[in-house]
Known about the structure:
By secondary structure, this protein is α/β, with parallel strands linked by helices. Helix content is 32%, strand content 24%.
Amino acid sequence: xxxxxxxxxxxxxxxxxxxxxxxxARSLVEAGAWGTTVADIRQATVMLKxxxxxxxxxxxxxxxxxxxxxxxxxxxWPQVELYVFADSVAAVNALAAAWxxxxxxAPLRVLIELGAARAGARTVAEAEATADAIMATDGRLRIAGxxxxxxxxxxxxxxxxxxxxxxxxASVGDMFLRLRASVGGEAPLIVTAGGSVFFDKVIxxxxxxxxxxxxARLVLRSGAIFFHDHGVYDRSLxxxxxxxxxxxxxxxxxxxxxxxxxxxxxxxVLSRPEPGLAICGMGMRDVSFDQGFPKPLTVFRSGKPLPxxxxxxxxxxxxxxxxxxxxxxxxxxxxxxVIEFGISHxxxxxxxxxxxxxxxxxxxxxxxxxxxxx
Length: 374
């Protein structure tokens, strides 16, 4: 993915909220990521303590309380290159008051957020008023560019979803040009979007605009795409293939087959109470389920994989600590077997664990990544 972004003139600041594992975030920066994205001040603190000092805080921080906490953070880490979202004059005024009260702080870089269905200015007039408010802070705040999260614009209907996402990204491109006209040609600006599900559309619609500006950078904040899965992101990359959107070195290839799901959860069969049912030791406290149930992949017996997974085996229900695995009456599955499951939606699975284990191709644990979800 990093190579794909580079080929299309984009940088990547992976979203740290997905694993909240500073070691993983650092490894991506060392592999070529431009920076790291966080969702709030606490997450920013975790990443700063780990030595990651170029951060996009991809959210508004709120009013006076949030702005003051952010100012305290910036004061404690004066080396941080920090970008923060603002989508209203009220948000700008809160940040400006905190930065005026702390004269030693360097000017704060502010990204004007445009949005749909979540935060973000909804109209050009609102976005321009936000920009004017930043310009009126006597240099305590600085316009650093424009931001969006295009995933929030998605809709169940694919055609309407495409129209909504494309419309939002077009507005971002237009706002970038307006900002460039306001701040002049020498000020560095970034254009940043989510880029996990609709990264191809972000590239197609924004990269040509940004590429014409020598002082601008397009930054994708992709997070869960770096973990991929057997559910929502697998389906989303299928949609990318439907758009012929994965262009690598001038060739259209399959995104769905180019990314490998990275997350697995293993659970033991605890009970076979009925011929068509197995109860596994995994539940809502162990795996994500908001975007679909876990998918059984492999059965292990006495530490060795069985030749085949029972046909049509599927999870149909989760309790706190139990998974209900529907089977065919004659399926070969016994108490003590261990089932390897793929998951759907990394963001709501990883936050259940204090340690993420990294395994090699043979399944041997070779890394342990502590997490800091709070």
